[in-house]
Design goal:
Blueprint: H1 11-43, H2 58-85, H3 88-119, H4 128-149, H5 153-167, H6 170-176, H7 200-232, H8 237-246
Length: 247
């Protein structure tokens, strides 16, 4: 028996589906977070003795940094689908992802500041990776501000989608800011990204936390998109009926 997934492209049919999926993602995110933090704090060896124990902040910093970029790509993806196919739900999903992306980007910068103070002796340096991550935060904030500044929802969706699409150039810049082809040309304080060079237990903790943040991002995006759907579809008959049943 085949499932017609295209029927869920309608806000009316996606709304109850998102409601059913949200608790599952919340539970998975919570369980993985507990496992990941326990593994990171108690199962990883003391191989970085010169950095003492503050290196463990990386178990939040690194996954948050990955999520800040991944969520931006997802936001752009939904925005592009909305521009091409003119689907309302696609724009709603993009708008629902933006706040989570901004939170993860801020968390990246905040934990990075603590790491920098203890590791490099400074809270902030105009390092290429730091600067490009800060620009990413401004892009998220700009996207949300543009959405709020335009009263016409259709125009707001298209204008913010174009801004997100142009800003996507920031993602490869963030990556190549420390992973440039010629290591001698890299002026970043950050080291090059290399998962293969990381101790296995540290890598496991990172990956578990990445999946935890990933599940959380799904859960919070689905919760937020349900609110967006109700707000934008408030004059639809099915929303009136739904609200009436809840009363």
């Amino acid at each position: 028996m085949s499932i017609n997934w295209f029927k869920y492209s309608s806000p009316q049919t996606f709304y109850p589906l998102a409601g059913k999926m949200t608790p599952w993602f919340n539970w998975i995110a919570g369980i993985l977070a507990v496992v990941g933090l326990y593994w990171g704090f108690f199962e990883t060896p003391h191989i970085l003795s010169e950095q003492k124990q503050y290196y463990r902040i990386l178990f939040v910093h690194v996954p948050a940094a990955w999520m800040s970029m991944w969520l931006y790509l997802m936001m752009v993806g939904w925005a592009v689908v909305g521009l091409i196919f003119n689907t309302r739900l696609s724009f709603m999903m993009a708008a629902s992802i933006a706040p989570s992306g901004a939170i993860f980007t801020f968390l990246t910068l905040w934990t990075g500041a603590f790491w920098g103070q203890t590791s490099w002796g400074t809270w902030w340096d105009w390092d290429p990776r730091m600067t490009s991550e800060l620009i990413l935060l401004f892009l998220y904030v700009g996207y949300m501000a543009l959405q709020s500044a335009i009263d016409d929802t259709r125009r707001a969706d298209r204008a913010s989608a174009l801004l997100a699409l142009v800003g996507a150039i920031c993602i490869p810049i963030i990556y190549w800011s420390v992973n440039c082809p010629d290591p001698n040309e890299c002026t970043a304080l950050h080291q090059q990204s290399s998962m293969s060079a990381v101790e296995p237990n540290i890598r496991i903790a990172w990956l578990i936390m990445v999946f935890s943040f990933w599940m959380y991002a799904f859960a919070i995006a689905f919760m937020r998109v349900r609110n967006v759907i109700l707000e934008r579809e408030r004059n639809a008959a099915w929303v009136t009926e739904l609200v009436g049943r809840k009363k």
